[in-house]
């Protein structure tokens, strides 16, 4: 197998009954914690010491896993050499530990590969409180007694009435820059009874700690390293809960990245707006220290002198006046002061309504047909025409899209009013109208007045002729 002395991803971990890194037990509960190894290569021997708060827990028993295949196939020979010790108060300070070591016989020239369970520790929950199961000493070695690189994963045990214990949430994982304040967020913590959380105690993992009354706290790490921050919250009944968060501190020389979008007031708000009042939406990213500030301007030349403000996901904004293309400029800055490139987004401001001219029927005209073709022209210099709508005699508007004609059949005689409304892509609109008369009279007059008059004259004429002949014959 060679002499590989490290294994990427190897983790020595505690698996709690919940399958997660947190477990809450009632007083008097007996439960098991499994000690597991994952993704190991060429393991010949190991030793670990697991510490706990013995006012909260007492270790009852320990069972090594040997002679069987466990979990993902990790195999430990039955004749593996091992020893363990349980001491619930070796130092008289409330700290207990379980110690375990094991090694393959000298006849083995190669170590073991895989993942599986090393041992199981049985605990009894004795008093209310919270404790972290901590690997204080942990050594993994290959057949040449060379150490195998690995990480550890600990667990948190809370003892009490489950419905009363507060829930600590340390947030994270966090990435920050050396010598730059990093904000730790405990706002996810809560109390199931609705009681206030009266204190937030942070052990920052770098040898410093503090108790605070607020959910957010800034801490400055002075060295590049990986840390574990521990949060303990206390409620109004003095009950506590603990949570852990990973902290990675780096030297940040990489500027953030980002983008910008503009939402205007129009049917097509990403391209046009009919108001200078718009909404800016920001997107930004920085993998190391995180984005902290930004600055925004309507003018690239003045952006460099614009004041930095706190980062935000969106912001109300006023464009400069005057129709045309408007461009907004934004720049982001991370916690170490690295500025990003300048990002831009443009939108067309159009506050001028379109123009419409009704060609036919013209205003005041007379139409000698019951079928009327309405025809118009329209134009818009800003955002272009979107669609037209037509209405006759106050009826509901009919959306005709891009058409510039509309036919109305079967119109009655007398006067009518047609209205045409045009919309541009920025949402501006204009309405124009034309009054016209439908005249179906064959003599050209409105309605049938002329026809009625002709008939009346004809009747009078016929009657006159009849009277004349009647008198003429009588004389004879």
How much helical structure, as a percent, in the residues? Answer: under 10%
Distance from first to last alpha carbon: 154 Å
Question: Regarding quaternary structure, how should these chains be classified?
Answer: single chain
Strand order of the largest sheet: 2-13-11-4-9-8
Number of DSSP strand runs: 36
Mean pLDDT: 87
> What is the CATH C level class of the largest domain, in words?
Mainly Beta
Structural features, described:
- Mean pLDDT is 87; it is low at 1-8 and 68-75.
- This protein has helices at 300-303, 449-475, and strands at 6-15, 22-25, 30-43, 45-53, 57-64, 69-70, 74-75, 81-87, 95-103, 112-125, 129-141, 149-153, 155-159, 174-177, 181-185, 197-203, 209-212, 216-220, 225-235, 240-250, 257-263, 272-273, 277-285, 291-297, 309-310, 314-318, 324-334, 339-349, 355-360, 365-367, 372-379, 385-392, 398-401, 405-408, 414-424, 429-438.
- The protein is mostly beta strands.
- The chain starts with 5 loop residues before the first strand and ends with a helix.
- The protein has two helices and 36 strands.
- The strands form nine sheets. The chain has a six-stranded mixed beta sheet with strand order 2-13-11-4-9-8, with no helix packed on it.
- The chain is elongated and about 155 Å long.
- The longest helix has 27 residues, at 449-475.
- Helix content is 7%, strand content 54%.
- A hairpin with a 4-residue loop joins strand 19 and strand 20 (240-250).
- The chain folds into four domains: 6-159, Immunoglobulin-like; 174-250, Immunoglobulin-like (Sandwich), CATH 2.60.40.10; 257-349, Immunoglobulin-like; 355-438, Sandwich (Immunoglobulin-like).
